[in-house]
Amino acid sequence: MKIFEEFSVARPIGEVWSLFLDIPEVARCLSGAEVTEDHGDGTYSGAVSVKLGPITSSFEGKATVAADEAKHQMQIEGRGVDRTGGSQGRVKVLVSLVGTDEGHTDVSLDSDVTLAGPIAQFGRTGLVKEVSRRLIDEFADCLHAKLNAGTEDEAAEIEAGDLKGLSLFFSSLWSWITSRIRRKPARDE
Description:
Helix content is 35%, strand content 39%. Strand 5 (73-81) and strand 6 form a beta hairpin. It is α+β, with helices and mostly antiparallel strands. The chain contains 6 helices and 7 strands. Strands 1-7-6-5-4-3-2 form a 7-stranded antiparallel sheet. The longest helix has 22 residues, at 127-148. It is globular and about 45 Å long.
């Protein structure tokens, strides 16, 4: 499934790009994500835990990151397996940063996500896209906080909060349902 998200950071592109190059630090802004090992040459091992309603998946896997400094773009490819739940996931993400005249940075995340196993049922309903949107909002807030911290030590202390799986699931479900209702054309009677 394709997922495209955008947000703006009220900082110059150089500062935002420097933070994105620090993969373990950026991972701390993704709720449920953890870099467990840096293999060098842009390859990382890590884990991502996702709870959607009754299903919890803890993916373990590897990701490769290729950064293009001149374009301020980053290609991320990862795959992981949930050994207990039987789900599998693959993701390809193109991260693009664009500086604005106001000194802000526009960030776009163009993702292609493939899910298999029990968690794949949420991909078919559109809930993964809604949950993704909410996670990106939290991610952007965390990045802002890191970039606005007074010192490097303060920035290092900032990380994404724990996901409240059930409340995230139901709030995302409600948003998805209301968006479907709004899109439904009115019928003439």
